[in-house]
Amino acid sequence: MNKELIRTELENFIERKGSQRKAAHILGINPRYINHIINGTDLASINDEIWRKIANQLLSQGHEWKMVKTSVTEDIWRSLEYSRKYSLVNSFVGDAGTGKTASIRAYEKEHPNVFHIICKDYWSKKAFALHILKQTGINYTGSNITELMDELEEYFLRIEKPLIILDEADKLSYPLFYFFISFYNGLEKKCGLVLTATTYLEKFILRGVRLQKMGFEEIFSRICQKIAHLPAVSDQDIRMICKANGVLKESQITEVIKESKGDIRRVERSIWIIHQEELAGLVL
């Protein structure tokens, strides 16, 4: 476990969130431990479970994996920056394995007031609200859904250039989707919003429009009745990923390209296997 790397990532996270207190709240860690790690004091009181809990949230791909800005990543970043800069609604879809979530996480790391929400199909309204509140790191006082949403709206209106990203937005139920859109009405032109998922999101929105589900015609209008489609991951993208992550032999790169079929998850797995075989002395 690379504790120095964890400390560095924690420092960056605190800088993005604005304070140690907010960072501790979001990570679910006692603020005292956060302070000890940052200041390098009383580290003996911090057990490995706490270090792992922080690492699992800040080093989601493992510290050895190098993030590469592929052509898909560049398209995603342009879309996110457009929505954040101008406080507009935007939407894009792409096949599974194109690196959508990893690209969003990388963007979130480099920009303040970006809130990446990975939607779940089992969320209630209150669970949805509490999850967003946790992402903000604010100490809320409300107990019912109305009070919680009022606190969220007040917070987003107060900060500079906020951006909410609903990842896997197609997993929201129709009522929950409308619930969020109703909340977002109070943030229009004050907060950017991006909806993204696999290509099923487009079917989900168009079906909502066709069935005249509340809120869907409105959101479809706000994205100018257009949902962007991300390009496929190219062989050149995979080549850059291989080289950045220590796979340099042309024969190995060619095999990774062939096996992955444009899926970055499969690329990552293939690279991991190559490194494991090299460690075991199976690759010359």
List keywords for this structure.
single chain; 284 residues; alpha/beta; Rossmann fold; 5-stranded parallel β-sheet; 14 helices; 57% helix; flat
Layout: helices, strands, pairs:
Elements: H1 3-17, H2 20-27, H3 31-39, H4 48-58, H5 71-86, E1 89-93, H6 100-110, E2 114-118, H7 125-136, H8 145-158, E3 163-167, H9 174-184, E4 192-197, H10 200-210, H11 216-222, E5 228-229, H12 235-244, H13 250-260, H14 264-279
Parallel strand pairs: 1-4, 1-5, 2-3, 3-4
Q: What does this protein structure show overall?
A:
The protein has 284 residues and is α/β, with parallel strands linked by helices. It has three domains: 56 residues, no CATH class; 159 residues, Rossmann fold, CATH 3.40.50.300; 45 residues. Helices cover 57% and strands 8% of the residues. The chain contains 14 helices and five strands. It has a five-stranded parallel beta sheet with strand order 2-3-4-1-5, sandwiched between helices. Helix 9 links the parallel strand 3 and strand 4. It starts with a helix and ends in a 5-residue tail after the last helix.
